[in-house]
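User: Structure please.
Assistant: Input sequence and predicted structure:
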Amino acid sequence: MKRAVAAYEKVLSLKSDTHDARIVRMRMGMLCRAHLDKTFIAGAEQTALWQDQANLALMEGKPAPDLPTASKFQKIRAGEADIYVYLPEEHANEAFGLGARYQKMEITAPKAIEAMQALANQISYFELRLKEPFQVMAFLRDELAAQEEPPEADVNAPSSPTDPNEGQR
């Protein structure tokens, strides 16, 4: 985990804009994207679990459990190995909180995507100094796109008559 913090801070401290420096920044951007996505999902999943536990505790007359919190570290699959990726606490908390709000239906999927992308843009432009921001929430974007696609036409279905008098003869 110390290496994850050191790697993040090293990329942020890069002053040059050489080809190698841009590649290192882009690689960190991809890792940050994975971290943000996983943190959003963790916020939603842990909030759902907390809601169930809180309801059970309420029914049993016990105090509700502590609210779940974000982690600054996420384990990400990178090639053949798992590595830890670090994001500062404020970014992790924001992504986790958006996942929790989405789970509680306080924000819609498009609003969640918009807010998460704004966070990704901030990290991309101002911290990693990337020319193009990385795109987060592909899984939710894909889900929304699939819901918007019209059903495929059934070529075997009877077509409507073109002649308005056809069924009356």
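The chain has five helices and two strands.
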